[in-house]
What we know:
Structural class: alpha/beta
Radius of gyration: 31 Å
Amino acid sequence: MIALVLAALLSILEGPGVCWVDAWELHERGLPDLAPGTYHVWVWVADAVPASVTINGHDLDISASDAPTGRFVWAKAGEIAIQESVLEVALSDNVAAMALSTEPDFDPAGVMGDMRVLDQPGRIHDQRAETVRHTSTVFTMPEFRSREAWEAYAEGLRRRILVSSGLWPLPEKTPLNTCAFGRIEHEDYTVEKVHFEARPGFLVTGNLYRPTGPGPFPAVVCPHGHWEKGRLENSDTGSVPARCITLARMGMIAFSYDMIGYNDSRQFPHNWGGAREKLWGIHPFAMQLWSSIRAVDMVEALPDVDPERIGCTGASGGGTQTFALTAVDERIKVAAPVNMISCSMQGGCLCENAPILRLDNSNMEIGALAAPRPLLMVSATGDWTRETPRVEYPAIRSIYRLYDAADRIASVQVRANHNYNQTSREAMYRFFGAWLLGDREKWLNFTEPDFQVEEDAALRVFPGEGPLEGYSDGEAVIASVIDENRARLDSSMPRNANDLAAFRAEFGPALEDALGAAVPDANDLACERFAYEERNGYVVERWILGRKSVGDKIPAILYRSSEADPQDAVLIVHGQGKAALADLAAGGPGPLVRGLIDAGKAVMAIDTFLVGEHHDPRALTERRRKGNFMDTFQPTNAACRVQDVLTALAYLRFRRDLTDTVSLVGLGQAGLWCLLAGAVDTGVGRAFVDIQGFDANDDAAWVASYYVPCIRSIGDVNTAGALTAPRPLWIANTRDIFNTAGMQAVYSAAGADTFRVSAGMARVDALLAFLR
């Protein structure tokens, strides 16, 4: 609903005595309130058939053309006296837009050239609005032709996993306060109840199975899947206790721990959180990934563990945790994700679908981050891993070959439905025997011996059900994580000019990750010119810009001098689109664009994603959606708009008749898009940002207007300001709501006097002076 209301606001344009409204908006909402007076009415109409307009019961008719062209033309429908504040409008189907003006000689056709690229009704077809990627999309893993190419990609993917989970930079590893108790002793292993604090007040709960003897032993962390009983599941389909008992008997310490919301993990339900929490990178996947990292810390600290021999294995959702942990934690030396790495199903639970996790990859690439460490891929004929031997396994093995380590990856497929059954477990035991215990021959034909599982009550860490007395609930944990994040970000901010380079290296890529955006390579640009018009002293070009690799489309109007000498350029982005920069009453560019042209600047105005000509005047374009995890697989609308700014900036620098000096102006809702884009693109010379009194400390405001997952966990506007420093930056229209203290502190630390703030909106003459 928020997106629909926002889009509805974007098609009404008003100037002195002029109102311009698209047909779909008239059908949805009618006309906006107009000052009383007599208005002349024009309609953009198909000229082959008659048309009609009814305004508050007054009928205005347009005859068909005597020589129809089959095109839409502007026709005057008549005039109407308006006194009422509520205006109801009805249109015939062949009307695309309507314009009302108090001036009888108003020429809407003459205004169109400064508002639109297309001269007929329609919309540009941006693939981002039409393509859907989701957990059941069939993915193909890219080919990496060198180890260097893979490692460059892998570095970015590891960082994105951490950014997606609010773990960039990594939080402080606070004391675990591990409590192990209730030991049960058997002849060849023991089992204990364990809880520890992954974060202050946030518990991880589970059981620790240990071999008898002094050690040191390898250790295996054992996340479980979405079995009904979690880590206590003991069925033919999967037995977590059997896995841990057998590993202990083999001579390995095993720690099985609860998914959030299972058994003794009772501070959150299993599925919890929403867009607000995702702004901070807080969600089930993130909390479980950090819990797994801290589980490694816990076992690594045990006196009888060899810290150089730690493995991880789990099935289903536990398989997702296994390959995610292995991807970001080099201490996992051997891994066996079971029944999960798939080209055609990426995980069906919120705990497997972090936002931004798979913007350009699938679980295959994440699984390949284990290379060159030993990896066993166990699959099943009866689930989404049925193709593993011929698809996923060869794909990941191709990465191992880059390291001359193809002998360290293996594939075993079991004839069964989704499982971690005895046959699957035995494949894992043999692999871990070879790589963790270091004796391939001894364990080559190992089979799981009989076992006896403790009663559930003997394994449970906390008795009963319900909240854990004396421990924080989920909301308190979230508040604590946010407070910790704020403190971590504050300590990361540059304190002097020398800090800026290190800050950019750490947070610049993280901002790109959160947005799923980057400055495109010039050779990836796809640009099509639709019109060229010479005017008095300058030229108007109408373009559709985009990227070949994506299929995005950005309507753009460029004004440049008729002279041959290269010009500096200014990109202007308005929240209502490029049409808002036109002079609706007189035609031609509006005062800001006109002033820049007169000052010798080339000027481009664009429609960002789902703004302006992304909509047909007769029908609103809505983004296609499928599944519950869109922000896992595709950038959000706000992120796409930031990307469009970056693409337009790259295009302007690519043009050989312009200089490399490009300034950026963001007006209306586009102000924040441009602040973020200017932070990513270090080639922006100076930037003006109309912030519209946005409260950057209000999570609800971010969700409503600028939803970008993880943006707050990496510092949002303060990080953007720091990445922009020391380049000239003017933040206008703060309305004393938008807090610029953090930005000001960074500019001061950098010794730069190029940061400017104003509570109100800048006058055109002041803005022109800033951009000269």
